[in-house]
Design a protein that fits this description.
This protein is an all-beta fold. The protein has strands at residues 7-12, 22-31, 35-46, 51-54, 59-64, 70-74. Strands 1, 2, 3, 4, 5 and 6 form a 6-stranded antiparallel β-sheet that branches. The relative contact order is 0.32.
């Protein structure tokens, strides 16, 4: 379903209210049956300003395709 080169917006659901709200936006570098490797930027919710703040450094993260805590949205071209 997912292909290299597609851009995705990934939300990691919180298990508890006290956990950080984590979002990730990036481009898929590699895909297999269980995981995707994504290069992009992390966003974390800042309670002080009530807005999401982007981390400046470019990151590479691996996300599970079978983890119920990851919500993956494909960004249209």
């Amino acid at each position: 379903m997912l292909n290299s080169g597609e851009k995705v917006f990934i939300i990691t659901r919180r298990a508890f209210d006290s956990e950080l709200r984590r979002h990730f936006v990036g481009e898929i570098q590699d895909v297999n049956q269980l995981t995707i490797r994504v290069r992009g930027y992390a966003f974390v919710f800042d309670d002080v300003v009530s807005d999401f703040v982007r981390h400046d450094d470019l990151r590479v993260r691996i996300f599970s395709l079978i983890d119920a805590l990851n919500v993956i949205h494909v960004i249209p071209r």
